[in-house]
Amino acid sequence: MRRYLEALDANKPKRGRKRTPESMKKRLDKIQAEIDTAGPLQRLQLVQERMDLERQIEAVGAPVDLPLG
Predict the structure, then answer these.
(1) Segment 42-53, tens digit of pLDDT
(2) What share of the chain has pLDDT > 70, as a percent?
(3) Is residue 66 part of a domain?
(4) Is 68 within the bounds of a domain?
């Protein structure tokens, strides 16, 4: 029972507005436009955000599989 409740807690919905794949792709386009003129630190932050968004877009289509063991 403890593992079940921990799995539910780990996969509970996040607060705030839900991000759609379209809004994430729109942000990716904006990031790409900003990278060329960004300074070194801002470029690093934008690259990290791009990687995070790409991972989130991939996860949107993946089914949620809660561990049962």
Answers:
(1) 999 999 999 999
(2) 84
(3) no
(4) no
Whole-number Å distance between alpha carbons of 13 and 15: 7
Tokens of 9: 């807690």
Which helix or strand (DSSP H or E) is residue 44 part of? helix 40-61
pTM of the predicted protein model: 0.64
What is the four-CA torsion angle of 21, 65, 15, 61, rounded to 10 degrees? 0
Q: What type of residue sits at position 18?
A: K
Percent of the chain with pLDDT over 90: 49
Q: How far apart are CA 62 and CA 49, in angstroms?
A: 20
Give domain status of residue 27, yes or no.
yes
What is the count of structural domains for the chain?
A: 1
Distance CA 46, CA 3 (A): 36
Residue 69 lies in a domain: no
